[in-house]
Known about the structure:
Elements (H helix, E strand, L loop, with lengths): L2 H14 L19 E10 L5 E8 L4 E7 L5 E7 L6 E2 L5 E6 L3 H9 L7 E6 L5 E4 L2 E6 L6 E6 L8 H6 L4 E7 L5 E12 L5 E6 L8 E6 L4 E7 L3 E7 L6 E7 L8 E8 L1 H4 L2 E5 L11 E3 L6 E2 L5 E8 L9 H15 L6 H14 L31 H6 L1 H6 L2 E6 L4 E4 L9 E2 L5 E6 L4 H7 L3 E8 L5 E9 L7 E2 L5 E6 L2 E6 L5 E3 L26 E2 L5 E5 L4 E5 L5 E3 L4 H4 L1 E7 L14 E7 L5 E6 L7 E6 L2 E6 L7 E7 L2 E8 L7 E3 L15 E8 L5 E8 L9 E6 L23 H6 L3 E5 L8 H18 L3 E11 L1 H9 L8 E5 L5 H5 L2 E2 L4 E2 L1 H6 L12 H6 L13 E4 L9 H13 L4 E4 L11 H20 L5 H4 L7 H8 L2
Parallel strand pairs: 47-48, 47-49, 49-50, 50-53, 53-54
Antiparallel strand pairs: 1-2, 2-3, 3-4, 5-6, 6-7, 7-8, 9-10, 10-11, 11-12, 12-13, 13-14, 14-15, 16-17, 17-18, 18-19, 20-22, 21-22, 22-23, 23-24, 25-26, 26-27, 27-28, 29-30, 30-31, 31-32, 33-34, 34-35, 35-36, 37-38, 38-39, 39-40, 41-42, 42-43, 43-44, 45-46, 46-48, 51-52
Helix pairs in contact: 12-13
Amino acid sequence: MTKKSILFFACQLAWLTPFAQEVSKTLAWQDIPNWNYLRTNGATPSPDGKWLAYVSGPTQGDLTLTLRSTQDTSNFNYKIGGASTPIFFNQNAQYFSFFESPKFTEIKANEKSRRPSSKKLKIVALKDTASVSFDKVQSYSFSNEDSKWVAIRFEGQGAPASPMQASAGAKGSDLLLYNLATKKKYNLGNVSEYSFNKSGQYLAYIIDANGKNGNGIFLMDLNTGISNALNNDDATFSRLSWNKEGTAFALLKSKTDKKYKTPVYTLLGVKNIKAHNGDLFTYSGLDENQITAGYGISENATAYWSKDLKTIFFGVAKLEKAEEPKSTEKKIDDIAKADAKNAAAKDSIAAKKDSVQVVANTKQPTPAKKPVVNKKDLEKPDMIIWNWQDKRLQHAQKLQVQRDKNFTTMSAWQVDENKFVSLADSTIKSIALSPNQLVGYGFDFTPYEYEANLNGQSYGDLYIIDIKTGNKQLAFKKLYLNAMRGVRFSPNSDFLLLYIDGHYQVLNTKTLAITNITKNIPASFVDMLSDHNVEKVGINSYGFTADNKFVLLRDNFDLWKVSIDGKSATKLTDNWKDSKLTTAGFNNLYEDDDFIDLKKDQYFIVMNQATKQKGVALLPANGKKLQVLKLDDINFGGIRKPKNSNNLFYTIEKSNVAPEFFVSADKNLAQEKQLTNNTSDKQKGVLSAGSKLITYISDHGDTLQATLYLPANYVEGKSYPTITYIYERLTDEKNNYSQPTYPGGGFNRAMYTNNGYAVLMPDIKYKLNDPGMSAVACVVPAVKAAISTGIVDEKNVAIHGHSWGGYQTSFLITQTNIFKAAVAGAPLTNMISMYSLVYWNSGSSNQSIFESSQGRLTTGYWDNWDAYVRNSPIYHIKKVNTPLIIMHNDKDGAVDYTQGVEYYNSLRRLNKPVVMLTYNGENHGLVKEVNKKDYAVRMMEYFDYYLKGKPAPDWWAKGIDYIDLPKHLEDRAF
């Protein structure tokens, strides 16, 4: 056995070793599948706050669901197979439910053979953990407030009985109604959609059977068990939607119509559920001749009732007419005309007819005719026409053609008056409704669309729409949208909050008068950290208060309660600018509240801009000042409050401690209880020794910060090889945990700190027209400041970035030799050629990205040549002395593949050490797991060689012949 084979065999053994039981101090990439962690995103507290359910287990393997009591140490574990599961409690918190999947190995085998993996539903009683299971479940739902029932829809019941049934495309399958208390079961067949109303007394369901036999919409009263067929038809029913109160619902019905290529839809609305078991209202718009000719009800929008149950909102779209078949007589006439035109005889038309008649009678051969060419048989050129007047590039139109086809124009049907109202149109394409649904707003972008697609500077004309009549009034012309941070209605729908030219303003939706409510406040509402080519970027607001009197706004630090008329402004924070504190987010604890109710306790996420500490602050009910409850070297994950409990649930993590769930019954969080153990004793300290914040001065004179993440085996006084990872501003994430995983961009912080590296992540502040030079002015001083701490080994520092970070990496190595090695993922390398290329993922040009987004340039290169050249890596390439890996994929739809090729070929021509990795078929980031593994391993092998003195991998040191590539990849397979 060769040494190479032994190494490969050892890797396979390491891959199979049960890592969950025995954690080594140093992780190999092969260990990641066995790394255990808690899936925090799916963790769910019970509605009464007495339980927390969550899933944990290895990255790739069989998982466990844990039900944890918040009152004591009780917990119950359930094996759920190889896939995570959503977790649901019924509303009275007597039962919880989850899916059990096949084992991980079986799921993978099924994926490989393209077989589905069935799921089993398990429902557990919380009082005694007694459970019931159902096989091959597709979906299920508890009966909301009623809490007595669960509806379970099963996977399809096998192949259709006949080809005719197969062509019908029936979507129905069995629906089981299971009574949680009595254990009784009721089966409904061929159900395609179903939904309980809010109270849970009623179940609306759609039957979609083979051959459309018995299709319809049905309503069952679960108190009596009686079902009523509200509408039966040889049709297809879809998009069932209850209103929020559970007193009415709407849906669509479609039937084929020989006049049109696609089915024609009818709107169905049902209300008066309790009084009459449902009154049915139908509307097609075609029969009533109300909808604009050529349009009909759209299948791509869900219909829904207005709050007053007088109107149904829905979408309309173009109807594509079927081609009318030519009649037999017309075809014969066309043939006769063609014969007459092409006949070679010189006789008159009458003589020709006689001749043809004689020929016909004597059965003589007819004269030769010139063949009639059908236009459909002609070959068409395969091409695209790009016209300078197109508002969108042809490729953008091509990518968005389905979206355009599916576009629906928002409309309304006033039921009692049987009146159709068109709300949106071809210019104002979408409408946002106010809370009372009597008014809406929309933007007309068409006057500015062409220019916006060129330079990215977006504007729109703001209109206020009367929902009753559809009338539109221009409220503000040419509103600058790049600087906007949301438009918000007031609770009574009379006001609209806007951000205009550095100030928040309130628009009266009735009079269209605009009031500047921040002009007299001694603070700036312009984002001080914004450095794009956008003027006066606003800071996000928190919107109106529920009493319709105030707006909650924040400047760069303090939080303000400002009256709607702008006559008063109260600071809810105590001069936070001095301490560099700011509110970083609002926690809405009350799921039924659409606005901030100051009569209730309200919580805000807070952060210290100077220290990057995070935490939470409380604004007590009817309070006047925010009270900081927590502020530490943590990342605080936000608060969740179950509907029927005062318990508050939240997560806390650190840079080297995985997120843990906590609960507190105290609104001040003074008596919290840890519920999870996401970081086991064997995992503590394995990934990193923590993080340090470094302050430094950029070459532009700005005071900036960088985070230095310490290696797991950190010893004070010792210097370590360091990876500098860059992408704009990163220090806000100082206390974020890094999970060992296979990254789409190749770099995983946890794996590097675990393997003895320090990781430096500096902030970059940009100057317009100097994006590359700004990176140099910020990153190089950051590296020097990190070296001065003694933690970073100045002789062994590397750099890596992906996408915009890849651009910065490829540029930095043209300006400094401070880095021993570099990896640039999907880098932009030539600003001039890249400027006018296409962002293929969206089909738009890159010009707007350069002039209003990350490019931070103010014009095209023809008016700014020096800036484009000065900041393009390719124009400084002779100064590159740093070994470089470029990762650029051939289907990259963000940064054109030619950018990587151009840089690689230029460096190669200069005989500079460079390798380019291309993963065929991949886009901007890696998606296929095998590719993510491969790139991650190669990157670390490369850095280990340059920064740790390990042997150089063959693919770097010697190169790989194309003919030997398959064998090379096979030997490296995981």
